[in-house]
């Protein structure tokens, strides 16, 4: 789900794979062609059935719908909340003709007991196989899974074991949807193996293998006005790291091992990498895989043990949609995952008058990513425990507020659902807003909306980090660029802005240069062990190729 355009700063580390036309167009087509759509059977029509969907819902001839009957309710044993239903699949229908207000469908295979008013769901309740005839399509498979998470994908390895030597309908196989990758492109075939969608390759261009460069001291640049204070200009030092593979979800800096030096941790969906930059020497210290069944979405550090070392708290979710965070710390000279399956969203935050605290919040039921109060995390013996609740604005979740004081008045700065930066009182009154939209994050949770005609898996995006520094400046990233509908975010331009609240309006303080990258996270810290704070950002570069992993890098700017 997280892809955009091509970057030019570093060499790509890619496999030989066919490239489709523009990545944006490819993803746009996938989302359009396979977005979840639900409707109802109107009536039978001879050997066909009429459903209440047409081109306005972006359905197309060849689309496949499962006909389901909602069954027994799934009820949470403690909260008694209805989480969903155990559905019964009556059969599969395929669209043959589209009219104004309705469409005709034919039955695929045996159907039984279809009635007027039965629920139909597009491309759901049907197995999805990915057959790779290039031997180099596993990355594309991962991209498809991320872009279309609501499809019931079979595993990559299992699909390859069961695919025939040449593309053909297997004898005796239960109905399935087939994504078939060949040297000519990607075909999607129906259960009877008819092509319903084709995504051709782009002139069979190959992406050349370039080995990932070994980590070495990265160059310092002296670019004009890398960070510009309002009504000022000049040259500021800028440092960038060698490339990393993937789209980052967070960055943290601090003394992780107690040696008095600052380290840098970068979290990706599947791992955490730890580095140190000192005296121009950039060194990788550790890589900690998180496990194939987990995906991280947030990173923060906090010295919960009070031993002078930051522990890293990674908020993560399992493939089943359950929060399962981990704690990473340095022990006996090595970095280790020392706690798993932490059942909370987690965040470190500075509270005015109190200092840094570790906060958490629980995940809600179906369709709700947050539930209950935001609370302090404490140690009860050797276990993590829920502590006292903290005051937050009404309806705020763990990630979308940052407190600050203005002339002894307690306020919060929040990113609204509309993308504007708001200054909010403890009662929830908005007393000021930014002129332009700010924030923007590609880090997300997957939630299932509970709707009458069946739940749909949707991304719930985590708000971007907001920091209020010691000068009272409100520092926030600004991501912009390409985005597909409201379900998929892919940013291609970014900068960091600092605003100052004067009691009536937010005023510009300073901003970094706009770059062609997605800014995933940032810190204000002495990341290079030089004795003064810098702006530390972790960014992901755009990529034209939808099959390849994105590349990331750390940037460090001298603050004004």
From TrEMBL:
One Pfam short name: FG-GAP_3
Q: Which InterPro entries does the record match to this protein?
A: FG-GAP (IPR013517), Integrin_alpha_N (IPR028994)
Range of residues in the leader sequence: 1-24
Q: What keywords appear on the UniProt entry?
A: Signal
* The name this protein goes by in its record: VCBS repeat-containing protein
Q: What is the lineage of its organism?
A: Bacteria, Pseudomonadati, Thermodesulfobacteriota, Desulfuromonadia, Geobacterales
């Amino acid at each position: 789900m997280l892809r955009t355009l091509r970057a030019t700063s570093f060499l790509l580390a890619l496999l030989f794979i066919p490239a489709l036309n523009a990545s944006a167009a490819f993803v746009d087509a996938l989302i359009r062609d396979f977005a979840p759509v639900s409707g109802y059977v109107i009536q039978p029509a001879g050997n066909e059935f009429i459903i209440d969907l047409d081109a306005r819902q972006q359905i197309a001839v060849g689309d496949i719908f499962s006909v389901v009957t909602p069954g027994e309710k799934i009820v949470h044993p403690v909260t008694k909340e209805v989480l969903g239903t155990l559905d019964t699949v009556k059969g599969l229908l395929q669209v043959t003709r589209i009219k104004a207000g309705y469409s005709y469908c034919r039955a695929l295979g045996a159907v039984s007991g279809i009635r007027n008013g039965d629920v139909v769901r597009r491309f759901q309740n049907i197995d999805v196989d990915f057959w790779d005839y290039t031997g180099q399509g596993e990355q594309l498979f991962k991209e498809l899974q991320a872009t279309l998470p609501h499809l019931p994908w079979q595993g990559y390895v299992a699909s390859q074991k069961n695919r025939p030597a040449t593309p053909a309908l297997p004898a005796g196989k239960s109905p399935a949807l087939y994504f078939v990758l060949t040297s000519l492109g990607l075909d999607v075939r129906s259960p009877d193996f008819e092509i319903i969608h084709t995504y051709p390759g782009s002139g069979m261009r190959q992406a050349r293998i370039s080995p990932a460069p070994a980590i070495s001291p990265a160059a310092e640049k002296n670019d004009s006005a890398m960070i510009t204070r309002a009504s000022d200009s000049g040259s500021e030092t800028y440092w960038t790291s060698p490339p990393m593979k993937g789209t980052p979800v967070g960055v943290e800096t601090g003394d992780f091992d107690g040696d008095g030096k600052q380290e840098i941790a970068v979290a990706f969906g599947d791992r955490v990498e730890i580095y140190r930059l000192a005296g121009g020497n950039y060194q990788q210290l550790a890589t900690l895989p998180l496990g194939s069944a987990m995906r991280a979405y947030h990173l923060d550090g906090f010295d919960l043990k009070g031993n002078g070392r930051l522990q890293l708290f990674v908020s993560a979710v399992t493939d089943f949609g359950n929060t399962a965070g981990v704690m990473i710390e340095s022990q006996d000279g090595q970095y280790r995952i020392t706690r798993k399956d932490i059942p909370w969203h987690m965040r470190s935050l500075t509270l005015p008058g109190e200092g840094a605290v570790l906060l958490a919040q629980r995940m809600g039921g179906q369709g709700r990513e947050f539930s209950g109060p935001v609370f302090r995390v404490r140690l009860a013996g050797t276990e993590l425990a829920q502590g006292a609740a903290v005051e937050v604005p009404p309806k705020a979740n763990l990630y979308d507020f940052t407190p600050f004081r203005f002339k002894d008045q307690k306020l919060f700065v929040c990113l609204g659902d509309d993308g504007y930066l708001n200054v909010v009182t403890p009662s929830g009154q908005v007393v000021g807003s930014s002129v332009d939209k700010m924030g923007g994050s590609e880090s997300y949770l997957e939630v299932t909306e509970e709707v009458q005609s069946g739940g749909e898996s949707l991304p719930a995006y985590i708000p971007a980090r907001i920091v209020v520094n010691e000068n009272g400046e409100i520092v926030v990233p600004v991501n912009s660029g390409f985005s597909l509908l409201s379900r998929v975010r892919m940013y291609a331009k970014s900068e960091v802005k600092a605003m100052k609240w004067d009691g009536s309006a937010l005023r510009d303080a300073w901003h970094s240069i706009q770059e062609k990258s997605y800014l995933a996270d940032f810190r204000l810290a002495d990341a290079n062990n030089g004795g003064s704070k810098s702006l530390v950002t972790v960014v992901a570069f755009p990529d034209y190729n939808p099959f390849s992993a994105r590349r990331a890098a750390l940037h460090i700017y001298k603050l004004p």
